[in-house]
Amino acid sequence: MNDTANPDTAPPNGFQVRLTNFEGPFDLLLQLIFAHRLDVTEVALHQVTDDFIAYTKAIGAQLDLEETTAFLVVAATLLDLKAARLLPAGQVDDDEDLALLEVRDLLFARLLQYRAFKHVAEMFAELEATALRSYPRAVSLEDRFAGLLPEVMLGVDAERFAEIAAVALTPRPAPKVATAHLHEQTVSVAEQAKHLLAMLQARAAANGPHFLSWSPTVRRRSRWWDASWRCSNCIGPER
C-alpha cells in the first residue's frame, strides 16, 4: 500500500481504517472488537499501520501527538492480543501455553481499560467546555432572595461565643521536643586529654625528637582544657 497521501485529501474526522472486512473510524474498529463482532485475528494490523502512516503524512504539521501515542499503544496491544488469540482454546496442559492465555486476557483487559479512560477523558472535556461558558455572579444577592435565607442558629449566646473565640484565638505554646529519652554519656575532659596524650606518647617513636619538642605543650593544653571545662560547668558533674 502506498504510504504517501495528499494533505488536501486528509480525512476531516480523524483516522479512517479501510480493510477488506471493515471500513470506518479506528474507534469503531475497537468497539467491534470489544463487542466480539469482529475477531482480532481477522484484522490486518499491518494494513492498519500503513494507513495510519499515510494519515500522519497527509495531515503534516497538524498531527496530534496524543492521537499518535494512543494509536501506538492500542496497535501494540492489538498485535499482542492477536498473537495470543492464535493459541488453541481447548484443553491446555502446558504451563507456558496457560501463561500465554492469561496474557491474552490481560491484554484484552488493557484495551477495556484504555476505552474506559478515553470515555472519562471525553466526559472531562465536555465538563470543561461547559464550565468555560459559565461566569460567576459578580453582584450581591437581591432583596427578594435575601429574605428567603434561613436564620443562622449558633446554639450559644454572645458570652459563650466570646469564650470560644478567645480559646480559638489564644496563641498556643510552641511545641517542644523532649530529650529525656536520649542517652547522654558522661565523660571527663581531663581523662580524655590524658588518654589522648598517652596515645601520642605511644606513637612518639614514629616522630622522634619532633614529638618530644611539643610534648610539654600538649600537657599544658590538656591542663588548660580541664580547667576551662570545670569553670564552664561549676554546677553538676564533670563531662
From TrEMBL:
Keywords: Chromosome partition
Signal peptide: none
One Pfam family linked to the record: SMC_ScpA
Biological process annotations from GO: chromosome segregation
Xref: PANTHER family: SEGREGATION AND CONDENSATION PROTEIN A
Protein name: Segregation and condensation protein A
Species per Swiss-Prot/TrEMBL record: Mycobacterium kansasii
